[in-house]
Amino acid sequence: MIEGIIMQMIDIVRMVMYGAAVSCSGYIIFCHRNYFYERFQKGVVSVFMLAMLFFLTAYTVHMLLVLLVELAKLLGAELPELNFWLQYAWAFAQLGTTGGLIVLALLTRSGTYDQFIHFERKNPKEEQDAHTGSGEK
Fold first, then answer.
1. Cα–Cα distances in angstroms (integers) from residue 134 to residues 120, 122, 123, 124, 137, in the given order
2. What CA–CA distance (Å, rounded) separates 17 from 23?
């Protein structure tokens, strides 16, 4: 009896922690959205910041999936089809989380935080001319 109550309390604490993790990672992504928007507009993005975004996005999806699984268990809605898709989504999110962590670890080990990815940008006029076929050559 007491063990059952303790297990329920642990489940509730875990769900609160998962919710806090989703909230914090979502907040970090939200607060950095202007940075990424500006950087993508300029065509230059920090590799470290891009890896952080990749990791946090995958981590957020990962934690949302954990919450879904836990809620399904709590509500007794464990369906084989749901579990099948949640396992695939879990593997995909874990791949993203691990990939992001590997890149962040490599950048941290090398100490090269000032690496940037440069995107080739076209002049908007050139882009419009390329679509309409009326550019001067």
1. 22, 16, 15, 14, 9
2. 10
pLDDT (0 to 100) of residue 56? 92
The Cα angle at residue 64 between residues 62 and 68, in degrees rounded to 5: 115
Rounded distance, CA 96 to CA 48, Å? Answer: 15
pTM (2 decimals)?
0.73
State pLDDT tens for residues 40-65.
888 888 888 888 998 999 999 989 98
Distance (Å, whole) CA 112 – CA 108: 7
88-127 pLDDT, tens digit each: 888 888 898 999 899 889 989 988 878 888 887 666 665 5
CB of 103 closer than 8 Å to CB of 56? no
Q: Calculate helix-pair angle for 80-110, 47-75, nearest 10 degrees.
A: 150
The SS3 call for residue 46 is strand
15: how many CB neighbours lie within 10 A of its CB? 15
CA–CA distance, 118 with 75 (Å, rounded to integer): 48
Q: Name the token pair of 94.
A: 């874990």
